[in-house]
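FOLDING PROBLEM:
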Amino acid sequence: MLLVLQLSLYLSSFALTRMEQNSNLQRQQYNAAFRHALDGLNPSQREAVEHIEGPMLVIAGPGTGKTHILAARIGRILSETDAQANNILCLTFTDAGVHAMRERLLQWIGPEGHRVHIYTFHAFCNSIIQDNLEYFGRSDIEPLSDLERVEIVRRLLDTLEPGHPLYRSADAYFYESHLQDLFQRMKSENWTPTLLQEKIDAYLEELPQRPEFRYQVNRGHLRKGDPKTAQIEEARQKMIRLGAAAALYPRYETALRQMRRYDYDDMILWVLRAFADNEVLLRSYQERYLYLLVDEYQDTNGAQNEVIRRLITYWESPNVFIVGDDDQSIFEFQGARLKNLLDFYTQYQDQLRVVVLRENYRSSQHILNASHGLIGANERRIVNSLGTMEIQKILTARSGDFAESAFLPEVFCYPNRAQEEAGVVAQIEALWQAGFPLREVAIIYARHKQVRTIATLLEKKGIPYAMRRRVNVLDLPLIRNLRTLLEYCYLEFARPYSGEHLLFQILHFDFAGIPADALAQLSRVIAGMDATERPYWREALRSREANAPRHLATSGFSEVLEDLIAQVANLSLTAFVERLVNRSGILGMVIRHPEKVWMTQVLKTFFDFVREESDRNPRLSLRRLLDILRNMDANNLALEINKSVVAANGVNLLTAHSAKGLEFQVVFMIDCVKDGWEPQARGNNGRFALPDTLTFSGEEDAMEARRRLFYVAMTRAKERLYLSYSLRDAKGKDSRPAVFIDELGLVPSERTLPNDVLAEADLLQMTELERPQIPAEPVAEINTLLEGFVVSISALNRYLRCPLSFYYENVLRAPALQSEAASYGLAAHNALQRLFERMLSSKGQRFPGLREFLLLFEREMEKMRGYFSPKDYERRLETGRVYLSAYYQQHVDHWHKKVRLELQVRNAVVDGVPITGIIDKVELHDHQRVVLVDYKTGNHRETKLRPPGGAQPYGGSYWRQLVFYKLLYENYDNSGKRADAGVISYLDPDQTGMFPQVTLPLSTEDTAFLRNLLRETYARILNHEFYEGCGEPTCAWCNFVRLKAPVNSFSGEEREELDD
């Protein structure tokens, strides 16, 4: 027994000895790897790594080894001090950055690298919250979803009264995205409503004294130095809106607390408040982290910078190591970011060591020189801001492979966009055929749409490429069709036949499985019936009276629809969606689809979303789900899925933002034109204007941010850099190179491709017709449907816009649902008609008072109630009361009283063309003069009033309408009266709060033009020239035919605006 025990002890001792030997061997290997890394440092890098005590600022340009020195410094701290791994905190911006840092540490110091605290800012703050739940007390709250954020903001907007700076009647949620953006900024920058108002007041106070708000030269009656009052007032109105929006922030925060929700950026704010209120908590973290390292400091926002400041203020000379490059900051508010850096420099100036890394291990010297010349055009740079300290950021190439490469950066100028796209693909094809590794090639662009054609050409040529982008499944035809079917089931369940306008679309979807000829025959039969006998489509599908073949073709799908409608109330939402997907034929269609893997992922993504929403709200109904999806559409919220095209050795297609941190031997920067790379003129869409007293950034900030983005893209190239632009865009319009091309100082090489290369590119892209077409129907049957056709202004406008839309809506008479906007406009229109009728019938022809007018409007709205959701009904009703009150008060004393109302003209013929219409109001003036008046709600778009010319060869829709009414009236009235003017009377205010009445003169030349247009259009209609669409991407019917995707609404602009 003793022998066994001794043997066991010996074996254990032997095993421990072997483990110690292995551990020592591993430690020696790690030490050797770390020493090798240190030996490879250049003098500047070595200075940054070896001086580990006190504050240090490292300015690290592209390719200078930033990650290398961060990891080396951590290894140095652990080897040279008594600090433990958990005494080191490294903060960076992305999970990818955390992973890269961790991997580098594990290579150099082994498992100890796992113990170093490397976090993103949000992950760090979340760790503080989770480690101190007894203090934060937030274990039972959940993150706010995008949908819930939309709903909270909309509820805030719903409470606004008319007169509030953010109140909009026609578009109540116009400022929804503005508010979301502002609240997110307030949290990320740690701005309070009080701070915003202080900065607004300071901005407005100094505004009149600013040179840009004063005339710099004498002009007319204005003298040099006079204030630009209109410009000042415009700025003041913007600040009023901003202040009003910031004042809503506390109510937004209250709503979050009541829902037990939090925003992503709240984690940082909670920690900052806790640090401010609980000194013990703050001190525990200050004392724990003896060394702090911050990566990409140039991108820290206000709240993140405050976290850093709180952690280091405890120490008189903190061991803080900040690494960044202001020239690679691709975010806005550079002034504020630069101020953070300068404040840090000023605070620790006496102790601070500044190191600039100037040796680049990526690119050739030619590429570095070109990019340096570009970024030098920026004013907001640290090299211009550190006072007496001179900092030079001229990079020297040290890459062993490419530093002395003879390839110069080249700029290519093509005659048009098609030439450029074909040219880039031809260059890549030449590299591919020469055996060049395509994984070392990148095409970099500012926006995904710039590379679509190139991706198509690469695919058609069989050239491998890799691209990853986020796709919104709600935009895909499969999910749009599925949503249309869900909407139909709900509407039919809630009120039978109320979904009629959707069923016509659904029957055309592939999954319905109805043959096209059977559907075409049914369409013609229904369209040919008298309006009083015409059945609902739902009834027609169920009917067994029609011929047997058609009934057999449609009855199966009809039974499915009837079953689904019956199950809306009997199944849970997830069970109902599952049944709908299976029974409708959607799942079968997906399984048989050539891209079934992708289609299955899309369908699963949508179903998972429904299930997650049901988990959040177990009582979620189909109606509520549809409301959520509409809210997502309205606010451009995506249900995203990654669509990846991956090739092991393929060309990399990347946006400039996603290219940051990567490098390639050959880089193509494409579409380098003003519209592609410079900031957009409408760049503040969806955002409130902010005062520079808050952001420390002026209007030039946007341009400098885009220049930095261009610089980042250029510095991804190791050996070859090709930049290209075209003189005409894809639509043939002139385009000009981005200002950054000019600033490079490189002489563009003009390139024109041979015709055969262009022809090949065109053929590769011609996979389908640009203008969707449908098969022509039997001539005799369509002639029957056109019997008695009379041209109205809406029919004319619809045909001019899209002949295919005319076919579906005017020939086949596809069912359409009147929209809420149209219903509101009709109620306002009818109230005015009743007002004038009462004036005409009263003694002395006196207009009823305002109160009676509003009662008339309320009665008309009550008649339209069925077209509104409950919430929108109340909103529109209140809007109408406010607007019509102001409209009445502005115009009642000036209204002409000798009028005819709702003049309906039938049986009029102009040059052999039968026309019809209803004129809202005809004013009868002296001297046989007549003025035609039409009421309008909605936008005041000046283009609608223009006569023919330029981009509008047929004139604007309002101009055509008034000229059409002139023809109509003068054909009706044979007394010699002439309509020499038309008036558009707006029932919604303009930006000044007034209700304009725009008068258009109507001449004989105008009527001559329209007569000719009527003759030509009528002849084309009778010749059945309506089977080809307009091809416009926004055309509902063209998309319906081309994509088999649902139409959001068949109630087009002409149908709703022109009142016939």
In short: DSSP finds 43 helices and 23 strands in the chain. The mean pLDDT is 85. The CA atoms of residues 38 and 894 lie 88 Å apart.
